[in-house]
UniProtKB/TrEMBL annotation:
A divalent metal cation binds at residues 22, 171, 222. The keyword rRNA processing does not apply. Its cofactor is Zn(2+). It holds the Pfam family SGL. The active site is at 222 (proton donor/acceptor). Signal peptide: none annotated. Residues 20-278 form the SMP-30/Gluconolactonase/LRE-like region domain. InterPro entries: 6-blade_b-propeller_TolB-like, SGL, SMP-30. Binds 1 divalent metal cation per subunit. The keyword Protease does not apply. It comes from Cordyceps javanica. This is SMP-30/Gluconolaconase/LRE-like region.
Amino acid sequence: MDSIQEWTVTSPWAEPHCDLGEGPFYEAETDSLRLVDIKKKQILYYRCVSAPASAHAAAVAPEVVQLDVCPTVTADLDGVDPRERIVVGVKHGLATLDVRGAEGRYEMLVPFREPPNERLRANDGCADPLGRFLLASMTDFGYGPCQPEGGLFLFTRDSAREIISELTIPNGVGWSPDRRTMYVTHSTARELLAFDYDPAAGGAMSNRRVHRRHESGPAEPDGLRVDVDGHVWQALYGEGAVLRIDGRSGAVLGRVRIPTRNATCVQFVDEDLFITTAADEDGPDPESRRLGGAIFRVHVGVRGLDLFKFKI
């Protein structure tokens, strides 16, 4: 077996003490990293993240937008300044958020369903190459163990339909550089799924298959991004790692190790990879408990693909 590339991160880049840090997104217009803390109902902004002076931001307090609902993921709106409005996944579906004040004022665009199912909330998602939005749903906090009642929904500005059903925790979504392959994570099945994707046919999906099943450790695969070489960088929740996965074969090409267990998602800024995490209150390792909810940064020497914008 060929050796894989290894990176080890020993200290955090920033320590916002997230309960459930997720959805890191690079806001290019302002050179900012924004992320959500789902449980604290917050969107956090770190500014000037590509500048050399930001290599160690542990003492920098983020700007915080407080919501009265759990934000689960954000994206930019096509043709809209992200300093004014962005799109955000919330409990019942997709909303736009006015970010010009500290108190987040949001407007629902489209719910998952009418009437809403109180058992469910949004999870991860992103805009697709055609400017639509893919948003996962899953069992909400307080409704017991997660059940196979979630799914992946396709949103336009005025409609939503479920395109994959009976999922327990659907998670990160991404595309190959040629936009012909779409990746979707099913965390509880420990599967990175792949589909043939045809932009010319309205984003038609076919040929569902398991691109990689995580069987080498205790973790569940979580959020992901795809690099310019077509390889998938996937966070491992419960294993303190991020894997670089071959976009063709599914083989593991690289591994980033971090000093806390619950890696949740990743985001590229130039050739640096930012890693969000969740709290590790019950973990056996004191260092992992201390650093749960921190953000980590590592230079990996490759750029990520730009994320798409939602066309409203």
